[in-house]
Amino acid sequence: MTTHFVVDTATLTGRSLKHITRSPDTIITTAFMPIAIMLLFVYVLGGAIETGSETGRAYIDYMLPGILLITVAMGISYTGYRLFTDLRSGIFDRFHSMPISRSSALWAHVLTSLVANVISVAIVVGVALLMGFRTGASLLDWLAVAGILAVFVLALTWVAVIAGLSASSIEGATVFSYPLIFLPFISSAFVPTESMPGPVRWFAEHQPVTPIVNTLRDLFAQQPVGDDIWVALAWCVGILVGAYLTAIVIYRRTIT
């Protein structure tokens, strides 16, 4: 049974990835906006922003973790779009008329999202390096960054799956990502939370993006991550489990 599921998922993931290779503009579009925001903040606004960073530390080093989360938030909107399109085209009904694992079609979209976001994040990091981003992070630190981002991608992807399964229009399948894209702006991604007024500061310090950003920033800077990493993982895993269970319930009701 497990082997059957793995083979079916791999086959359908290959099909989904072919759509991305034939339409690379989706990845380019996903990476374009975060890069534009990065250019704006570094070259236009960065000189006026006080981050409290140590002398000689470039602003791009401070804000890159937030840009990476924005990249992911933009990328998962395409997962909702692709899933909604497949549902409305009847392709899921065709898959389920074949002797394949029922959940493999859903997991194929999730794994495709993971691959697409890895590519988008790599593009953004490459541009950041050209803009002056520097890090002394070790291989272990980079692996920790990659692991946190991977869990974050999976958590938001299952949120996108919920939107794709329950939406009644293409707009509904993608608009959910807008608040997720905006969330890093009310966090420690671009300025320290200490500079914010009381209620805004409280929200910034108690929403999921801030501990994730702080953890990634400390890993890049080779600083102790403290409790932030556990708070970040708790948020990511909690969202992942909750969104996964909700998506499965909706999927079973939708695909009969």
Automatic annotation (TrEMBL):
It is found in: Cell membrane; Membrane. The keyword Transmembrane applies. InterPro entries: ABC2_TM, ABC2_TM_bact-type, ABC_2_transport, Nod_factor_ABC_transporter. Pfam families: ABC2_membrane. The chain crosses the membrane at residues 26-46, 66-84, 105-130, 142-163, 175-193, 229-251. Residues 25-254 form the ABC transmembrane type-2 domain. It is a multi-pass membrane protein. Keywords: Antibiotic resistance, Cell membrane, Membrane, Transmembrane, Transmembrane helix, Transport. The keyword Transmembrane applies. PANTHER family: NODULATION PROTEIN J (PTHR43229). Belongs to the ABC-2 integral membrane protein family. This is Transport permease protein. It comes from Brachybacterium fresconis.
